[in-house]
Amino acid sequence: MRPDLAAKYDLRVPRYTSYPTAPHFHAGVGSDAYKGWLGGLDPALELSVYLHIAYCAEMCWFCGCHTKITKRYAPVAAYMESLWREMALVAEALPTRMTARHVHFGGGSPTILSAEDFVRTVDLLREHFILKPDAEVAVELDPRTADEAYVKAMAGAGVTRASIGVQDLDDKVQQAINRIQPYEITEQVTGWLRHHGVAEVNIDLIYGLPYQTLDGLLATIDKAVTGLRPRRVALFGYAHVPWMKKHQTLIPEESLPDTATRFAQYEQGCRLLTETLGYVQVGLDHFAAPDDELAVALKDKRLHRNFQGYTTDSAPALIGLGASGIGSLPQGYVANEGEIHAYQRAIVEGRLPTARGVAVTADDLMRRDIIERLMCDLEVDLDRVAERHDSPERFEGELAALAPLQADGLVTVDGQRITVTDDGRTLVRAVCAAFDRYLKQGEQRHSKAI
Hints:
Shape: globular
Number of domains: 2
Structural class: alpha/beta
Helix content: 25-40%
Oligomer: single chain
Number of strands: 19
Low-confidence stretches: none
């Protein structure tokens, strides 16, 4: 893509892990509504469960997650007691003991848990839900706080996949983001995972970090991938949103790569991963080994997108547990209290800690379908989507909004079929934005498209 186009379309747009997106959730959907939605689920539905571990031992300055820093374990132990009680409240609200086929521990840092509390959490999941024998149990892992005993306990509890945060291997970049993580530590933890039977290992990398150069990023990608041999790689763009995350003010604005440099990092990073290292690019920022389930799902057009990014998980209901946990049900979205004390207070009062949410309309569901297909397949047939949703919508306004992107070669439009070109892949979120009825262009609450 030409650099001028990268600058032209580098707008602030959502990441589209949901639709409507989280800024449009509201307090009109609370505990009672969520409880009713849970009770109204079809007992035959299969679930996914997300558990948010809202603590870290140290703050990474690039972080955009909901987390709190602690050096003591007592707050973590108290938090887990609340999360376990929330799990029970959710299970009590469901029509029956339902089946879960996907479990994801995120944060924060799940590796801040003691091995005993991690195992206890999985045991309670199995008590409150029917965990399928082939269920994927995935954990986000910080190698700086994971010892071998913890890894062994995870594996024994049934963990099948670990996602390791690598970010960048350059010393100057690590210092600038307050995450000192020598490669040898990451390599050691990866070895422990495989030794104890967790064969599915992912790594997360970030471009657009302070003082990060193009050559430095490419060196990080090459060393991390050839050395750690991950099945999947995520190459995320750093989202600098200091108005939302105050600790990001510790990163000097002048240390950040400009738009042209960010685009070069993304484009050449993608090329290295695909053309040299042999991965299949999945959507915007994920890469998978050709025989990995994610790559197969992409080929078969069975790929999905949720709050954890690209996934093969097609469960129609996602239960979000923990402070700031977000759930997705056929009726709509719910989000828990993000402030830990408010979250715990709700649990003590015996109510679900739902702070906000949104009920989805028929139009929302149709547009979510369109956006998901664009994000996953980079193409969509609007006629087929409208037919699936029994809608007469012709999307004249949306197609008109795409005209500038079409003129610049970022999309092709053939009747009602939209295809994102190779040049347009980087800006697929800007394509999706044409179908977002809630979006106000330029809102500061979103990160940039590149």
